[in-house]
Amino acid sequence: MPYVAEPWSYDDVLKLTKVSSAYWRATFNAPLLNLFTPRTYAALRTLVEILENDRAVKVIVFDSSVEDYFIAHWDLVPSEDKTDDEETTPIFDWANFVLRLARLPVVSIAEVRGRTRGHGSEFILACDMRFGSVEKAIFAQPEAAAGVHCGGGGIEWLPRLVNRSRALEILLGGEDFDATTAAQYGYINRAIKDAELSAFVDNFARRLAGFDRKPLLETKRAVNDRAGLPRLTDLLSSMQDFVRACTWPETVKRVKTLFEMGIQQDGPVERDMGRHLHEASIKMYGKTEEA
């Protein structure tokens, strides 16, 4: 029996556009910050299920309708969105999801403008390719600097892409990386001038969509087998560490300080988070030796 997808109903957070039967686009669409919420995750899970079952689509491009934010980060405010199945929440299911995304019988590409930090960064790391705007893309894993453990795959993906030392620089420093540096490190594939980014990604996606599906998928499968994907047990362990870290008293204090400074508002903290994370330490503990 042919697969029949449920009607798409997530345009408020993720807008799906079928450029052709072989080439689709998914646009993160939750202004002002494109925070990652349970509804974002529900939309992505639904999309991945559709992609797993559609036999025509060959390439999916993820982009954003919010110029300054691709995905800002995980929403730190407890969500009112409820689910009847606890096992499909990001906390319990993210490890399975990112491996499903990496193994999709579809090529996934992230076209990044604006800030993508934390869980947003971990989402694009699970995509097959990442291209960023020289002028507008910013990448970061701020978890350690914000007082928590990186739990969504950054620890597992980054050493494979950028080497151990650079992964530690990204993960421990919590600083913002521009697209040019990110490309030099291997965090993303290429940094492209903003005026040329969309045309480049569109042309590349159309190129792939014009090839036969079987060699695309067999090549992706072989690369996954030889390069090695993160282990499910490691991804699960990192998420458990993240959940535990969220309960540490010093973490609760640090997050409270960040909210008082203006995190999750479209202002200085979100726009220049790398610098303000260090300022949070000074506010909490007074002038540090490093300051």
From TrEMBL:
It comes from the Eukaryota. Pfam families: ECH_1. CDD domains: crotonase-like (cd06558). InterPro entries: ClpP/crotonase-like_dom_sf, Enoyl-CoA_hydra/iso. This is Enoyl-CoA hydratase. It comes from Hypocrea virens (strain Gv29-8 / FGSC 10586). The lineage of its organism: Eukaryota, Fungi, Dikarya, Ascomycota, Pezizomycotina.
